[in-house]
Amino acid sequence: MRGEGIGIVIDNVLADAGVARELVARVVLPFRGRHLLEEEYFPYLGDLEPARSSEERGREIGHLSGADPIAALYYAIASGELSPGDHAVVFSEGVGIVQSAVLVQVV
Predict the structure, then answer these.
(1) Which of 41, 65, 88, 101 is the residue whose CA sits 20 to 30 A from 13?
(2) Which residues contact 88 (CB under 8 A, 6 or more apart)?
(3) Which of 80, 15, 19, 84 shows the shortest CA–CA distance to 52?
(4) What is the spatial distance between Cα 10 and Cα 101, in angstroms, rounded to a whole number?
């Protein structure tokens, strides 16, 4: 299932990096609109906080396809939501519900 995949991908990227969930400041998500984020993404994040930029900037500029998470990460850093030293999981989806994530540390 799509939602379960989100949790699995995030858990796997954290395990691969050896980073505990409590060290993650935010999860950066695609620009998908508040309703879709609340229904299909947020329930599967567990105790991780979604980046506000994933919704707020998405409302302003719309869906950018594969560039959504990159733009959301940029805005989270530019707004001060993420600071140097913070870890963030950047999550994305592609056609056929290909799900991927990367863990970044802001420098």
Answers:
(1) 65
(2) 24, 25, 26, 27, 28, 51, 73, 76, 82, 103, 104, 105, 106
(3) 80
(4) 6
Q: What are phi and psi of 40, to 5 degrees?
A: -110, -10
Torsion region of 10: left, alpha or beta (phi above 0 gives left; psi -120 to 50 gives alpha) = alpha
**One-letter amino acid for residue 40 of the chain:** E
Closest by Cα among 19, 41, 22, 20 to 32: 41
Mean pLDDT of the residues in the chain? 89
Output the CA angle 3-66-94, nearest 5 degrees.
40
pLDDT of 1? 60
**Mean predicted confidence (pLDDT) in 59-88:** 89
Measured between its terminal Cα atoms, the distance across the chain in Å is 35
Q: What is the pTM of this model?
A: 0.88
